């Protein structure tokens, strides 16, 4: 299986709940290494640029408002099959639909405040990692 990298963001709701360590433990226990990390208060421009693919969606403004509502913890994760593995750890976008034991089922409150972001493909991961960490 290929060694991949993926971008993960612990969103403002989960940072405020003080569960960064618990989420990091899940990454580590699944064999994903944290190879870069930064805690950051996103600007509106950064949040809008990051989610540019969603800019025509009705929830875009709410999504940006939420992403700038407090600091986020951004990390690049590396490991076998990292993109899919992280998506499995995260669970479905809507925490009500997320499988038991996933990060979103355990730590998220709603589809807006859903605890984590994770790249959805290897190509997207490369773009997203470069967005925050450069080449
Ligand atoms: P993902 O984060 O599971 O990859 P995406 O479809 O890429 O989900 O959506 C990005 C983010 O936009 C979601 O994590 C969620 O916070 C927000 N979002 C997606 N769909 C909705 C919605 O229908 N209402 C409100 N927020 C949404």
UniProtKB/TrEMBL annotation:
The entry marks the following residues as binding ATP, namely 11, 59, 87, 93, 104, 114
Give the domain of life.
Bacteria
Give the E.C. number(s).
2.7.4.6
Q: Which UniProt keywords apply?
A: ATP-binding, Cytoplasm, Kinase, Magnesium, Metal-binding, Nucleotide metabolism, Nucleotide-binding, Phosphoprotein, Transferase
Could you tell me which Pfam families the record lists for this protein? NDK (PF00334)
A GO cellular component term found in this entry reads: cytoplasm
Q: Which family is annotated?
A: Belongs to the NDK family.
Q: Which residues form the active site?
A: 117 (pros-phosphohistidine intermediate)
Q: How does it assemble?
A: Homotetramer.
Task: Describe the reaction catalysed, as an equation.
Answer: a ribonucleoside 5'-diphosphate + ATP = a ribonucleoside 5'-triphosphate + ADP; a 2'-deoxyribonucleoside 5'-diphosphate + ATP = a 2'-deoxyribonucleoside 5'-triphosphate + ADP
* Source organism of the structure: Duganella rivi
The answer to keyword Ubl conjugation applying to this record is: no
Q: Which cofactor does it need?
A: Mg(2+)
* Residues in Nucleoside diphosphate kinase-like domain copies: 3-135
Q: What does this protein do?
A: Major role in the synthesis of nucleoside triphosphates other than ATP. The ATP gamma phosphate is transferred to the NDP beta phosphate via a ping-pong mechanism, using a phosphorylated active-site intermediate.
Q: Which CDD domains match?
A: NDPk_I
Q: Which HAMAP family match?
A: NDP_kinase (MF_00451)
The protein, known as? Nucleoside diphosphate kinase
Q: Which PROSITE patterns match?
A: NDPK, NDPK_LIKE
């Amino acid at each position: 299986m290929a060694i991949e990298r993926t971008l993960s963001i612990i969103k403002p709701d989960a940072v405020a709940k003080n569960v960064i360590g618990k989420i990091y433990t899940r990454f580590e226990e699944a064999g994903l290494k944290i190879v870069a990390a930064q805690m950051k208060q996103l600007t509106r421009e950064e949040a809008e640029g990051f989610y540019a693919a969603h800019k025509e969606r009705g929830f875009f403004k709410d999504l940006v408002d939420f992403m700038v509502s407090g600091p986020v913890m951004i990390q690049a994760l590396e490991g076998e099959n990292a993109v899919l593995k992280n998506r499995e750890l995260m669970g479905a976008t809507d925490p009500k639909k997320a499988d038991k034991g996933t990060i979103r089922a355990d730590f998220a409150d709603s589809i807006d405040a859903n605890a984590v972001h994770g790249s959805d493909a290897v190509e997207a991961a490369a773009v997203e990692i470069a967005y925050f960490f450069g080449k």
